Amino acid sequence: MNNTRTHLLLFALAVLLAAGVAFSPPMATPSSAAKDWGGSTWKIQGGRQSDGQSSGKWRTGIRARADGSAGDTISMGTTKSVSNSVSGTCGISRKVLNATFRFDVSRTWSANASKTYGLSGKKKGTWWAIQYKPVYRNYKALARKYTFADGTWKKTGQTRWITAKKFDHFAYRLVRSSSPK
User: For the whole prediction, is pTM greater than 0.90?
Assistant: First the structure.
């Protein structure tokens, strides 16, 4: 009888141990374990805000001398590689930044534009040049840092601005110029 009880107790202990192993929570992956020990991330707080315009430097495109005639003009076409850009991303994914700013923040393409100015009112023999520069629309979005501890994300007081530039157009101007060399 004593032997049967020992067998039953050992059997019950084996069943309980097996049940404990079978129903124990899964081990944390290294990435989730790291987050439990103080991992952090940045998240966008609200949407984009307009932040004005900016532009590149003026560049001289074409020069011409006024001939004094009534139909005298100077024309220039511009085809340049332009791109949108983003800075201060805080490790936030491009997909989230594209959705926040509502444009592809890293798109590059070839933009075309042209401009014509009349020279008929200009003194005969004077030189003129068309200058151009790229113009961008600027945007910003506020990002806030969150830390992961005790199984939940907690908001911190640390914030940063993420800025983005979207190419808008080429600006042109007519300026007095010296003769080309």
Answer: no
